[in-house]
């Protein structure tokens, strides 16, 4: 790891340093506020212990901003001067005189009493990672996370997996409102570009986690909170330029607290990039606006944000031979697939940046508008109620050029040219089609929170939500070389879907003894889903399904000593099949719902005083065992039109250990954050389907291969992330980010021939901020991605089979190559 040595060398600038310590208390009654967050110059510096005490053992010489925050209290900022002699600072936080609108969000979040595995990312942490890349890339250094980018550099369509589970198993909420698509369960962050610039914080829960709104958490939850009340007016702009002609321009503003009651916040953003992959361009626009009214016990806040994306399609990836630079394998691929002319030339010329699509408007074009109205009301000293109404409006299409397609597939008769007896019948044509999605998602969420005044032993929540989705799916032919009897925008399929999701949950934590806490969480969820109409392959996909799920959770915490905690929990989760499990399967072969039993157990520690030369250290060791019943996975099975199907597997599991450590080295002012996941992910037993084809690709026979203890696809057994950051000079911070991911299999056969090679990638980040007289802050930052110029792929897929009986199995892997060395540079100005 050469970058770590480089950073250690940077840390040898000498300052006169000394400790700063103190206590954080309630400004009304002097009671300690354990868990209050301390930042120094915007960087996380510690958390108050059970007695409200904190310690910063080594504060460099010079002026610094010490900031203390705690939910329900006004933040306090102190100016401290680094010196050799010890300093004591007492911070008394005044209670917030207005509600902050966190009732619904808090109800779905985990804390140290809920006995679950989670990571909190503050606004400060998100902003230093935010160069305009998608939200998954801001989470890349959190435990068990693997990210990928279709365009190769984090702008446009991106993917995220946590513990090997893709985004369809990750519950995503924004202010407690579900973001996941009701049908596919996916969360498409490209539809909310630069939302990170308007986020207050994110909590990543791993495993089933606590009860929340929306789809089931089958691997993790992302709980996103947008900007909270900012009492002071502000304005800022962020402007980024980088490799592949990448641009980001963002303007943000806030009114502060006007008249003691009103707040207004807004943002406009534009992000564009040509992409690392050929033609994988992105043109993204977004806005955010919030208006709030607050008084002592009441809060009303309207939030709206929107994203418009136009991205050139790059989701098909590149043949493995191109990614690996294997010319002989590439020629074999060209010959076997009868690729000729311009398409063959494109393959031979493009290299690892290959994109199969060459039509100039092969784009995905979609807009998503979000509207949220939040109301919070304090009900005496121990209760508060939060209610949110929401509406999401989505509409758009993706456009495709299709060569030599059958007219019959679009409901069109053959074209007859000429007069008898010299007629020519044309049954195929080149055409351009658009596949549309037009939908509404609306509903309400609520949370009634109870915290007895003056007694923090008990806290309880009754919450839930009702959400309804209505979506139209349809296709249009907008051009054809031979138009037959088509009309303008010939519609060749249409179906509509409706889905109603209702859930109610009750959860509570209770400190039964000074060191022992209990956690219980019960959720009831019902789903009603129906589809009416015809799909794009002309099949009638009319169906209806209903589900009722009961998801109990329970946990135990034990405080070993101040700053040390043991915890364990057991949770049950259920998930209904996604849209494709209904539309692609035969009507008489319906997929079943999945069930997950999740066991989490761990040890958290936090030491504010020096340990073995460290100024401060905190960390966690978490063990998980996720036992699935009827998990839906790909087995190689296809339907009658060649679409891959998912099949219920009776038994499978994921188990492993997540290690997280964060430390500050006092003498060097060097911070280290590292996480390591070691896991085993297995299907206990399943049948792999292998097809045997003739020379015309007709199926000759189907072979079934029994497999046991096979590795689950896209589930690496080792994932690690390390960030080492140091302050070289006052205002200048340098960080090295290092990521490793072990081998990932592209299917469930655990074959190395169908896998992604392990990879290691490092990024270098520099940030320099100053406070000149004419603006509040001026910051210059640079991100050098893939510092050591590794050639790797982070995602992909595979297909193949036996061609003629007795012949060798042919495999075609398609991979998503990630960008080689690249950079992004930002100038930020705060007024």
Automatic annotation (TrEMBL):
<comment type="similarity">
    <text>Belongs to the TonB-dependent receptor family.</text>
</comment>
<dbReference type="GO" id="GO:0009279">
    <property type="term" value="C:cell outer membrane"/>
</dbReference>
<keyword id="KW-0813">Transport</keyword>
<keyword id="KW-0812">Transmembrane</keyword>
<keyword id="KW-0408">Iron</keyword>
<keyword id="KW-0732">Signal</keyword>
<protein>
    <submittedName>
        <fullName>TonB-dependent receptor</fullName>
    </submittedName>
</protein>
<keyword id="KW-0675">Receptor</keyword>
<dbReference type="Pfam" id="PF13715">
    <property type="entry name" value="CarbopepD_reg_2"/>
</dbReference>
<dbReference type="Pfam" id="PF07715">
    <property type="entry name" value="Plug"/>
</dbReference>
<keyword id="KW-0472">Membrane</keyword>
<keyword id="KW-0410">Iron transport</keyword>
<dbReference type="InterPro" id="IPR008969">
    <property type="entry name" value="CarboxyPept-like_regulatory"/>
</dbReference>
<keyword id="KW-0406">Ion transport</keyword>
<dbReference type="InterPro" id="IPR039426">
    <property type="entry name" value="TonB-dep_rcpt-like"/>
</dbReference>
<dbReference type="Pfam" id="PF00593">
    <property type="entry name" value="TonB_dep_Rec_b-barrel"/>
</dbReference>
<dbReference type="InterPro" id="IPR037066">
    <property type="entry name" value="Plug_dom_sf"/>
</dbReference>
<dbReference type="InterPro" id="IPR012910">
    <property type="entry name" value="Plug_dom"/>
</dbReference>
<dbReference type="InterPro" id="IPR036942">
    <property type="entry name" value="Beta-barrel_TonB_sf"/>
</dbReference>
<keyword id="KW-1134">Transmembrane beta strand</keyword>
<dbReference type="InterPro" id="IPR000531">
    <property type="entry name" value="Beta-barrel_TonB"/>
</dbReference>
<keyword id="KW-0798">TonB box</keyword>
<keyword id="KW-0998">Cell outer membrane</keyword>
<dbReference type="GO" id="GO:0015344">
    <property type="term" value="F:siderophore uptake transmembrane transporter activity"/>
</dbReference>
């Amino acid at each position: 790891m050469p970058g770590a040595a480089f950073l250690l060398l940077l840390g040898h600038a000498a300052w006169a340093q000394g400790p700063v310590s103190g206590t954080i208390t309630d400004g009304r009654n002097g009671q300690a506020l354990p868990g209050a967050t301390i930042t120094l110059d915007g960087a996380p510096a510690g958390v108050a212990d059970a007695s409200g005490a904190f310690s910063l053992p080594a504060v460099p010489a010079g002026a610094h901003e010490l900031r203390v925050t705690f939910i329900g209290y006004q933040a306090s900022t102190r100016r401290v001067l680094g010196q050799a002699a010890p300093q004591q600072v007492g911070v008394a936080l005044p209670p917030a005189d207005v509600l902050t609108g966190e009732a619904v969000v808090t109800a779905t979040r985990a804390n140290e009493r809920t006995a679950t595995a989670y990571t909190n990312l503050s606004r400060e942490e998100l902003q230093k990672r935010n160069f305009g890349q998608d939200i998954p890339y801001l989470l890349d250094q959190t435990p068990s996370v693997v990210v990928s980018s279709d365009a190769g550099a984090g702008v446009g369509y991106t993917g995220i997996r946590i513990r090997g589970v893709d985004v369809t198993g990750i519950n995503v909420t924004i202010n407690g409102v579900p973001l996941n698509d009701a049908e596919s369960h996916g969360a498409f962050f490209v539809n909310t570009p630069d939302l990170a610039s308007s986020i207050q914080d994110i909590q990543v829960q791993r495993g089933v986690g606590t009860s929340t709104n929306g789809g089931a958490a089958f691997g993790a939850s992302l709980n996103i909170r947008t900007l909270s009340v900012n009492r002071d007016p502000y304005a800022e702009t962020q402007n980024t330029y980088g490799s592949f002609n990448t641009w980001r321009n963002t303007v943000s503003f806030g009114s502060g607290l006007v008249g003691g009651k009103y707040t207004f916040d807004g943002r406009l953003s534009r992000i564009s990039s040509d992409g690392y992959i050929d033609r994988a361009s992105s043109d993204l626009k977004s806005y955010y606006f919030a208006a709030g009214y607050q008084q002592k016990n009441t809060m009303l806040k309207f939030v709206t944000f929107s994203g418009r994306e136009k991205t050139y399609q790059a989701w098909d990836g590149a043949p493995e031979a191109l990614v690996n630079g294997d010319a002989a394998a590439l020629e074999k691929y060209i010959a076997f697939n009868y690729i000729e002319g311009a398409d063959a030339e494109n393959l031979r010329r493009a290299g690892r940046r290959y994109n199969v699509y060459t039509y100039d408007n092969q784009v995905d074009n979609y807009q998503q508008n979000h509207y949220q109205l939040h109301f919070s009301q304090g009900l005496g000293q121990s209760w508060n109620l939060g209610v949110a109404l929401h509406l999401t409006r989505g509409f758009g299409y993706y456009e495709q050029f299709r060569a030599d397609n059958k007219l019959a597939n679009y409901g069109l008769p053959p074209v007859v040219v000429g007069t008898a007896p010299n007629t020519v019948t044309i049954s195929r044509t080149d055409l351009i089609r658009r596949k549309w999605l037009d939908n509404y998602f609306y509903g309400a969420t609520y949370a009634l929170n109870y915290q007895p005044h003056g007694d923090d032993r008990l806290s309880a929540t009754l919450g839930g939500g009702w959400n309804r989705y209505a979506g139209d799916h349809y296709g249009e032919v907008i051009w054809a070389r031979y138009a037959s009897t088509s009309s303008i925008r010939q519609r060749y399929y249409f179906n509509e879907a409706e889905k109603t999701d209702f859930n109610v949950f009750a959860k509570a934590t209770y400190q039964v003894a000074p060191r022992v806490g209990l956690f219980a969480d019960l959720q009831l969820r019902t789903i009603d889903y129906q589809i009416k109409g015809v799909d794009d392959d002309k099949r009638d996909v009319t169906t209806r399904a209903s589900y009722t799920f009961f998801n109990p959770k329970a946990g135990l915490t034990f405080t070993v000593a101040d700053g040390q905690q043991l915890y364990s929990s057991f949770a049950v989760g259920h998930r209904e099949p996604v849209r494709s499990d209904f539309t692609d399967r035969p009507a008489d072969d319906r997929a079943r719902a999945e069930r997950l039993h999740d066991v989490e157990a761990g040890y958290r520690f936090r030491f504010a005083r020096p340990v073995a030369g460290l100024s401060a250290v905190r960390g966690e060791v978490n063990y998980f065992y996720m036992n699935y019943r009827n998990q839906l996975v790909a087995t190689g099975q296809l339907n009658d039109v060649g679409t891959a199907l998912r099949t219920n597997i009776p038994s499978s599991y994921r188990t492993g250990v997540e290690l997280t450590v964060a430390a500050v080295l006092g003498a060097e002012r060097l911070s280290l954050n590292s996480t390591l996941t070691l896991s085993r992910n297995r299907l206990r037993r399943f049948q792999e389907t292998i097809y045997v084809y003739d020379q015309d690709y007709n199926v000759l026979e189907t072979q079934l291969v029994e497999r046991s203890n096979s590795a689950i696809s896209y589930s690496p057994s080792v994932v690690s992330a390390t960030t080492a950051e140091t302050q070289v000079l006052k205002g200048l911070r340098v960080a090295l980010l290092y990521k490793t991911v072990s081998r990932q299999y592209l299917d469930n056969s655990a074959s190395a021939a169908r896998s992604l090679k392990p990879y290691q990638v490092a990024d270098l980040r520099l940030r320099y901020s100053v406070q000149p007289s004419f603006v509040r802050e001026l910051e210059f930052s640079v991100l050098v991605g893939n510092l050591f110029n590794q050639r790797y792929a982070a995602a992909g897929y595979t297909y193949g089979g036996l061609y003629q009986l007795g012949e060798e199995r042919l495999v075609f892997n398609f991979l998503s190559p990630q960008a080689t060395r690249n950079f992004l540079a930002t100038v930020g100005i705060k007024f």
